[in-house]
Amino acid sequence: MSERRTYLDANVLIAAWNGDADARAWAGAVLNDPSRKLVVSDYVRLEVIPKPRFRRGEAEVLFMEAILDSAEPVQVGPATVRRALALAGRHDLQPMDALHLAAADQAGVDEMVTMERPEKPLCRQTEVPVVSLRAVRDRRPAG
């Protein structure tokens, strides 16, 4: 069985570290799924490393770097930015969402996993299948 290549949105890593208990559990399930090959770009690194480094949160930086360093890297550059501009204009995406989507599309991943709400443009575009962990979490029956 081949691994499912999964591009991680930065908010999944952030949720894994400091989300509420449910968000940590859903993010952790993705991060620890042996059937997935995690894929990231430097855009993810830019979103998850500087703040904890500034706050001197060494444990958080080590956590993020361990995941990022074990993931498959997507090399991004000017062509990725041009693709992001086109995607943002087509789907009304936020700038970082467009960059992540362009990187995921460039990498040819099987899916992108995010904590974005399912009604957001990132989750409605058709270039890359998106799994919203928030949608999965919100569909649970009330306990």
Q: CATH homologous superfamily? A: 5'-nuclease
Number of strands: 5
* Structural domain count: 1
At CATH level 3, the topology is Rossmann fold
Q: How many angstroms does the end-to-end distance come to?
A: 35 Å
Secondary-structure content class:
alpha/beta
Uncertain segments are: none
Tell me the strand order in the biggest sheet: 3-2-1-4-5
SSE succession:
EHHEHHHEHHEHEH
The percentage of residues in β strands lies in 5-15%
The helix fraction, in percent, is 55-70%
CATH 2nd-level architecture: 3-Layer(aba) Sandwich
Radius of gyration: 15 Å
Overall pLDDT = 94
How is the main sheet built? 5 strands, parallel
**Approximate shape:** globular
Task: Give the number of helices.
Answer: 9
Describe the structure.
This protein has a single domain (4-138), classed as Rossmann fold, CATH 3.40.50.1010. The protein is 57% helix and 15% strand. The protein contains 9 helices and 5 strands; from the N terminus they run E-H-H-E-H-H-H-E-H-H-E-H-E-H. It has a 5-stranded parallel sheet with strand order 3-2-1-4-5, with helices on both faces. 35% of the residues are buried.
Keywords:
globular; alpha/beta; Rossmann fold; 9 helices; single chain; 5-stranded parallel beta sheet; 143 residues; 15% strand
Topology:
Layout: E1 4-8, H1 10-18, H2 21-31, E2 36-41, H3 42-48, H4 50-54, H5 58-70, E3 72-74, H6 78-91, H7 95-107, E4 111-114, H8 121-124, E5 130-132, H9 133-138
Parallel strand pairs: 1-2, 1-4, 2-3, 4-5
Helix pairs in contact: 1-2, 1-3, 6-7
